């Protein structure tokens, strides 16, 4: 089979200089594994971290790819819930399945947790023609969901779902701010909040504002403008008038970090919630603690989601209530171009790659 492999890290984001297509032997399933033919894979920012070797040195030689959908072609002797021919998508959170966190449905808090395709290896990920997963990490794709849409959902949808539903526990009628509404995470965040009957303000760059509204955002604000937060607060004042309430936000969906952090904290109402995962513009932020202790602010961290949460989210995709947005589709030979496009951020939705 063909696989996309790199043997060294790139220190200057010259992905073409390290990515190679190599012939590899097809995997043979262990007793608890399924082997599947990859039909579509979605790019993820951890692919870039892996090729950089920062902030984590991934195993070399390396095959990336955490968000993958395909057809099962063989199964191990102990596999009981998946059969050959099933259409599956990866749940990329590998955990021990034995500790208290795992057995209580919080496998994302397992101390032995690894992200498949990012931290696994050598040579174990989804950017290849055939790959393998433990049975417990294979999720059946609903019949009316395509491989491309399932791959687009795998990591990003379940993370957004866990942030808003599992952690922030959003409620109908809340005013929710989705930071980075034009990103893969933000696109799902907008739709999840609308599914739960919330009013949504999305931030994005100017060229993506109208697209955010098209997928459900009630308001869209350019977060590249210095006073973006003032515009958001003004919207919250108008919202409060209609509700006879207090201006400010109930929930902020945050994965940007950097210089926006304190502006976000200032926008929250008393007792409101900020849920955060990732920090694409920087993680080393300074917090004005007055916005936290004085207002009783809830700051929640979030990483991946449980397998059950991914299944719940895919159910709503199958019902047409959440719609993946695919920006572009590339072949495996165009991998360097695809990753460079994602790095530059000139996308709306997920980038898909096919073997």
Short synopsis of the structure:
The protein is an alpha/beta fold and 355 residues long.
Throw out a few tags for this protein:
alpha/beta; 355 residues; Rossmann fold; 10 helices; globular; Quinone Oxidoreductase, Chain A, domain 1
Description:
- The chain has two domains: 2-140 and 325-354, Medium-chain alcohol dehydrogenases, catalytic domain (Quinone Oxidoreductase, Chain A, domain 1), CATH 3.90.180; 159-301, Rossmann fold, CATH 3.40.50.720.
- With 355 residues, it is α/β, with parallel strands linked by helices.
- The model has no long low-confidence stretch (mean pLDDT 95).
- The strands form four sheets. Strands 3, 4, 5, 8, 9, 16 and 17 form a seven-stranded mixed beta sheet that branches.
- It has ten helices and 17 strands.
Number of domains: 2
* Overall pLDDT metric: 95
What integer value in Å does the Rg equal?
20 Å
Anisotropy-based shape: globular
**Quaternary structure of the protein:** single chain
Work out the helix count: 10
CATH topology of the largest domain: Quinone Oxidoreductase, Chain A, domain 1
User: Biggest sheet, open or closed, and with what strands and sense?
Assistant: 7 strands, mixed
Strand content: 15-25%
- Roughly what percent helix? 25-40%
Output the structural class: alpha/beta
SSE ordering: EEEHEEEHEEEHEHEHEHEHEHEHEHE
Low-confidence spans: none
Counting DSSP E segments of at least 2 residues, the number of strands comes to 17
CATH superfamily of the largest domain: Medium-chain alcohol dehydrogenases, catalytic domain
Give the second-level CATH assignment, the architecture of the largest domain: Alpha-Beta Complex
Report the top-level CATH class of the largest domain: Alpha Beta
Distance between the termini: 10 Å
Pfam families: ADH_N, ADH_zinc_N
Keywords: NADP
Organism: Candidatus Nitrosotenuis cloacae
Protein name: Zn-dependent oxidoreductase
